[in-house]
Specification:
This protein has about 375 residues and is of the alpha/beta class. The protein has 10 helices and 17 strands. The protein folds into 3 domains: about 15-85, Alpha-Beta Plaits (2-Layer Sandwich), CATH 3.30.70; about 90-170, Met-10+ protein-like domains (GMP Synthetase, Chain A, domain 3), CATH 3.30.300.110; about 190-365, 3-Layer(aba) Sandwich (Rossmann fold). The protein is about 25% helix and about 30% strand.
Length: about 375
């Protein structure tokens, strides 16, 4: 059914437009059809009233479009309605344009790490006096963020932790992060986690094969180990970490993702765990501890099966360094511990971690 009613009165704050009125039950289908026909007015907000939904249109329907609409919608009405303008989302700079001195706008964070509903930002010294204003603006421009934290130091220590300070929102450091269909509970103040390694988690998981035994030497809360287990039906993963709090969350995440039969969490020093509990069992070893991974090459060599296996080795390089130098250091360390590098299948930069410093990865076949 198609009816066009006379124009209704419109206030200065409203905009009058042609409207497609259908029952709420048909609302989603009507929006999809309107979008497909190119007649959905995206500048105006869709209105709801009682059991109906009113969809703003940019123009009248052609005869062909009326027929198509009628075939898919058993009952609809076209009339003229009043609509509010769709609120356009402001950027952080636009929101702070009138709240901060203009010379400070260039110092605003250009990116942030989103872990669950927590945003972790890096604030320049120039913005210290305006921390709360910036934090509240980030909350306003990112509806899924409930907490804003600022970096208060570099990642350091045995457990790879970073000092964080509260900026705005809820006072918390614990959240649940979703990545590649997996859920990870994490406390950013007590366990290492980086959303910037999302692609690496997926890449390494895609390289693992059914039937393998995988050793994640520095597992943290489990982003490598759990994704590997979730994406392979027949696989065993030993997930080791020295941080008790990280292993607590690792155990929770194993249950949360229902991979208890595939992932074995182990608390302890990587070298000691390999020597005492799992020597010569691994087809694949993950070494994501770029600060110190070279010191644990002996553990990886001892963990790999006698007939060889794969190692994913992560390290740092600087402007004065190169991937070639990193390959040489790793190869020498492997030979020092009685093994041989059969082939370096891949080497690449993963991400920038500081000015003139990058995290890099080697995929190495060890004989």
């Amino acid at each position: 059914m198609r009816i066009i009613l006379p124009s209704l009165g419109v206030s200065d704050s409203m905009h009058q437009s042609l409207c497609l009125k259908v029952s709420k039950a048909l609302g989603e289908k009507a929006i999809i059809i309107s979008n497909r026909l190119g007649i959905l007015d995206r500048e105006l907000e869709i209105q709801k009233e009682d059991i109906f939904i009113c969809i703003p249109l940019t123009r009248e329907l052609s005869t062909r479009e009326e027929e198509e609409m009628g075939e898919e919608l058993p009952d609809y009405t076209i009339l003229k309605c009043d609509f509010n303008e769709r609120k356009k989302k402001k950027s952080l700079i636009q929101l702070l344009d009138e709240k901060l001195p203009s010379h400070l706008l260039a110092s605003l964070p250009r990116s942030m790490d989103l872990v669950g509903d927590i945003a972790v930002i890096e604030l320049s010294p120039e913005l210290e006096a305006h921390t709360t204003i910036v934090g509240k603006a980030i909350l306003e421009t990112n509806k899924n963020v409930r907490t804003v934290l600022a970096k208060a130091g570099a990642i350091s220590g045995t457990y790879r932790l970073r000092k964080l300070r509260f900026v705005a929102g809820e006072r918390k450091t614990v959240t649940v992060h979703k990545e590649h269909g997996c859920l990870y509970q994490v406390d950013l103040a007590e366990a290492y986690f980086s959303p910037r390694l999302s692609h690496e988690h997926e890449r390494v998981a895609s390289l693992a094969e059914n039937g393998e035994t995988v050793l994640d030497l520095f597992a943290g809360v489990g982003p490598f180990a759990i994704l590997i287990a979730k994406t392979h039906q027949h696989i065993k993963v030993h997930a080791v970490d020295a941080n008790p709090r990280a292993v607590e969350f690792l155990e929770k995440n194993i249950r949360l993702n229902r991979v208890e039969d595939k992932v074995r969490p182990i608390l302890g020093d990587a070298r000691q765990v390999v020597t005492e509990r799992i020597p010569a069992v691994a087809d694949r070893v993950i070494m994501n501890l770029p600060e110190k991974a070279l010191e644990f090459v002996d553990a990886a060599c001892k963990a790999i099966r006698p007939d060889g296996g794969m190692v994913h080795f992560y390290g740092f390089i600087t402007a004065s360094d190169s991937l070639k130098d990193m390959k040489l250091r790793f190869t020498e360390a492997v030979e020092k511990h009685g093994r041989k590098v059969d082939a370096i299948l891949s080497s690449k930069l993963v991400r920038a971690t500081a000015p003139y410093q990058w995290q890099a990865v080697l995929d190495v076949k060890i004989h």
